[in-house]
Here is the input.
Amino acid sequence: MHMLAIVILSAVLSGAAQAQAPPAPSAQVESQIEAAQKHMQAADFGKALEILNMLIQGEKAAPPDVFILTATCHLNRQETALALEVFERGMSLYPGQQLLEEFYVRLLSNYVPVEQMKERLDKALAISPRSPVLLRASAYLEIRLDPRSEQARKVVDRLIEAAPDNPNSHLVSGRWAMLNQQAERAIRDWETALTLAGNDNRMRMDILTLLGEVENTLNRADRAEAAFKKALEINAGLPEPNAASAFFYAEFLAKQS
Here is the structure.
């Protein structure tokens, strides 16, 4: 099975795709969804699509799960364009449905050229202009295209305005700041992200490593070393420690000697 499709299907089967869904579908619709899932698990994606397309074409709007499953079937049949169309149809019916948007962005990132990705994201944002998922993807894309452009700055600002309590917003803003030679702003952004990260130790480790790097560029060795050491301490307690954390600290020490 296609790797991205495995991730999507696993989320649906675990119930994660229903996190922001509207009221539960009828028993009949649930039964049809279960039948489609059984066909998918047997790798009979054509048969699954017959059931799912009937639900999408029905008089009542199909639940978000149906669009995710349908797109998964198309991915497994190497029909990426159809998978994108299905996600876009679902997102138009359910603006702001996070899981639909997350998988859509992942699909764009993996299979769509940059210019087409920008066009599709702009259209999606026209429907959901305050979506943190879509704004974050758009900000990363604009930074990739030209971090010094006015468009990049505007999208980053929109992201912060739309999701000020999301640490990822401030991570993106810090990245934009560094690429625009605004190191102090990057530090403020990443310190805010660190506070908002809460108990997400992997994210905290990553942020502390970034802070160590930027403090080092400002020749503030004591602050850089403190950040690197905290990152290493957190890293040691992770289920799967990241060797890169130690590498950055070792690189820092080598430059100090």
Q: What stands out?
A: The CA atoms of residues 174 and 186 lie 4 Å apart. The chain has a mean pLDDT of 90. The two ends are 51 Å apart (CA to CA).
